[in-house]
Amino acid sequence: MKTTTTNPGGARARFAHLPRQLLAFAVLAVLCAAGVMLWLDRSGGEQGANGAANATYAAVAEQLAAKTLAALEPYRRAAAGIATDERVQDALAAGDGGRLAALAAALAPALDGTLALRILPADVRDAELAAQPPLTYASISLMRAAREDGKTPRIEAHLAGTDDEHLVVIAPVAAATETPGALLGFVHLSIDPEIVRAALRDAALADTYAEIPQCSKVRPGSSGPAPPADAPSF
Q1: What is the gyration radius of the CA atoms in the chain, in angstroms?
Q2: Which of 29, 42, 86, 196 shows a CA-CA span of 20 to 30 A to 163?
Q3: 0.85 cut: is pTM over it?
Q4: How many of the other CB atoms lie within 10 Å of CB of 38?
């Protein structure tokens, strides 16, 4: 998962040109591969100076991003911990599929929202679309990219809007001995998207719409009254 960063100064700069009479504003705070977008309805009263308003919106976005990331952190830590388990490393090094399946069943985190744990070899290429939840081609693509660039894949939402929607947390498993650091495989943890949706609901302010956009069509979570269709977004 990418390190979460926020940039209130950048958000303020993006809004510096907006006229004061606009009824809605959007603020983006970086979270994983996406962010948290907010629209705050300002039609009920006089708006303050742009700088003060923008700073307020940036602070709210930063707060929501932090809350959402905190909700995901136990799952990220769990996957990373499993990736350092010597039994997992040994089974991957031996290519023992039976041991890997047994370890996945035994080590699945006892966290609410955990859907499935898989321990996969580094050269995994086949999706499992009939499984529950499916191992998607999107997951295969994330792991392929991790093989190529050596980076931990970002947390993503897969199959959004379907009965099989889930979030994916992937942790590379590196060898500790023999060839230290060599990629052995991946811990692949599927979790319920309700984890982030609940975090948004709990943290969002009244009369505030917040959403986590992963890309132009995927919205893993949202909260609050939706903004008008012509509300600006950035």
Answers
A1: 20
A2: 29
A3: no
A4: 28
